[in-house]
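Morning F.,

Quick status update on the modeling queue. The single chain you submitted on Monday has been processed. Sequence for confirmation:
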Amino acid sequence: MDFRTKKAEIRSQVLARRDQLDPLDRIEMGLSACEYGANLIHPDPGTIVSGFLPIRSEIDARPLMDRMRQRGARLCVPIIADKTTIVFRELVRGAELVSTGFGTSGPGPDAPVLDPHIMIVPLAAFDRTGGRIGYGAGYYDRAINRLFSIGIKPRLFGFAFSIQEVDKVPTEAHDQHLEAVITEKGIIDCMAIR
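Structure tokens below.
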């Protein structure tokens, strides 16, 4: 079985598990994960931090993002620029959100595009070494590689429910590993495990 097929199979299985979580449990679990994340991530004032607005049954990163904002971080979220590219537009309180593709919403085209130094990354599945399966389009891998190409090496933190963990994520050369994964059960230090 090739990488793409194996990843699609894992993605489908894990997202089905995530979809079964009770919506109220998802809220509570997300808030617990936020507390762990807030204890782990300490941006300097002005640091650009990307997060994401939840879609479907995804964990809600907004409380964690607000904690980063309260510490002086500049927030941004991914916006689909074209079929292969995402950019990160600045998210400020009170800004009107518009449809931005892939079922997401975010700041409109007048919002500045930022290059994050800390990324709170959505995912479909993860393993303890920081392997990550996204939603299949490769947007984050390309965005991270673009940041590398301009000299930015962002810190990568997965943010997910613990039930999204799998034994092993099949990885390819272009896949970027996460520094840590934050769940409602705590922090998995992937760098210590690799």
